[in-house]
Design a protein that fits this description.
Oligomer: single chain
Order of helices and strands: HHEEHH
Radius of gyration: 17 Å
Helix content: 25-40%
Amino acid sequence: MSVERFLDRTEVFVEKINVDGDSDAREELIRLNGGYASVPTLLFPDGTKLTEPSFSEIRKKLKIEPPPSFVDRIRNAFGQGESDD
């Protein structure tokens, strides 16, 4: 799954900039990443950025709870509740 689709599924609305056709945007991306055109690069209102982040890093930054584990989903399906481990 792409970061874009992940953000869409978590209902995080972002401004997307395609750097392929915009040389100014590409230069800014390279400046932000110390000489690299790394995508995706996510910029946040607090001035921080994540470059090529994992879904876990995005969840942590946006304070999004991770989905339940496979074991917890099975336990919940059979009325066992959450795991205690």
